[in-house]
Specification:
This protein is α+β, with helices and mostly antiparallel strands and about 200 residues long. It has a domain at about 1-120: Jelly Rolls (Sandwich). Helices cover about 50% and strands about 20% of the residues. The chain is built from 8 helices and 8 strands. A 4-stranded antiparallel sheet has the order 1-8-3-6. Strand 4 (about 55-60) and strand 5 (about 70-75) form a beta hairpin. It is globular.
Length: about 200
Amino acid sequence: MHAEQILKHVAKHITLDAVERDFFISLLQFRSMKKKEILIREGDVCHHEHYVIKGCFKSYSVDEKGNEHIIMFAPEDWWMGDLYSFLTGKPSRFNTVALEAAEIFMISKPDLQRLYETVPKFERFFRILFQSALVAQFHRIDQNLSMTAEERYVEFQNRYPQLEQRIHLKQIASFLGITPEFLSIIRRKGMRGKE
């Protein structure tokens, strides 16, 4: 069942035969996680790329005052990890934690290398994935520099549909770089505009 979900995801970018599909699935490790369980801890090296089967995660840093800054949410059908740490072998600067009970597939760096060598078309798949992550990161930086808080909130709603009902207002505010109180004002304004 879970294998079908990730294979459907992969099929958006590359076509696999039965042998390639079986080999790919054989390299994946399944992991079930509890709500609030930490997947990647700041200071640890990220050794896996992770695919979210079920649940939602947040990646965040904590500043010297103890304030949390969410850089990313990863709901179902998303890949996540600390790409910098994964590729360089250097310690992560972020924490990644389950916001809900979750299920994921993980693939290690050595197994990813085996996958590239055995099924070269996966290099294309992960290149597309990593390029998309890079583009999203630049877009997020641009948003924070050039968009108003209201525009960033609308962008959040477009990027993460249905997520608003699943996560706390405080977490959305942290992601947007504003206070929960200011986010409440923006939401009220938006609701009045729809009347």
